[in-house]
Specification:
The chain is an alpha/beta fold. Helices cover 37% and strands 23% of the residues. The chain contains 5 helices and 6 strands; from the N terminus they run βαβαβαβαββα. Strands 1, 2, 3, 4, 5 and 6 form a 6-stranded parallel beta sheet that branches. The longest helix has 20 residues.
């Protein structure tokens, strides 16, 4: 089985979380992890699972050149199971509206959402980021193994 993780190319921490999720998925999937700048239709064509990841900026999904929002709008996710994740600052307690926006865009692009997705709260400290990356790896592993709890909300 093939899984493709497409992450927002404009946010370095999203790349790190995407790579950790991909590492967890590898227990069962052959995984490609690519940025939204590099991904094209061929990247996801044979994937049974597509995981999409983006940052939360100003409370929503950023609309920037090379970002995931524009990538989704330009591609079709028909016949793909889709999971989504976002990253957002730990210090903000606001709802993750970017996660909702990402789910909505993935559905409009024809993706079959497999869960509500996952929001990862991050801050710049190395110790905290290591914990988030472990959480992301575990989430990927739970998805791959189909274990209960992988779809728990943030």
């Amino acid at each position: 089985m093939i899984a493709t993780v497409v992450y927002d190319a404009t946010a370095p921490v999203v790349r790190e979380v995407a790579e950790a999720i991909a590492e967890g998925l590898r227990v069962r999937y052959t995984v490609r992890c690519v940025s939204s700048r590099e991904a094209d239709d061929a990247t996801i064509r044979d994937a049974g699972l597509v995981v999409l990841g983006a940052p939360t900026r100003r409370g929503t999904l950023p609309d920037v050149e090379g970002g995931l929002r524009r990538w989704i709008d330009a591609h079709h996710l028909d016949d793909h199971g889709v999971l989504v994740f976002t990253t957002r600052p730990r210090r903000r307690l606001l709802p993750d509206t970017a996660l909702r926006a990402l789910r909505r865009r993935a559905r409009r692009a024809g993706g079959a959402l497999l869960s509500a997705g996952r929001g990862f709260r991050v801050d710049p400290s190395a110790a905290q980021l290591a914990g988030v990356l472990m959480e992301a790896r575990d989430w990927g592993r739970l998805i791959a193994l189909g274990r209960p709890g992988w779809d728990r909300p943030d």
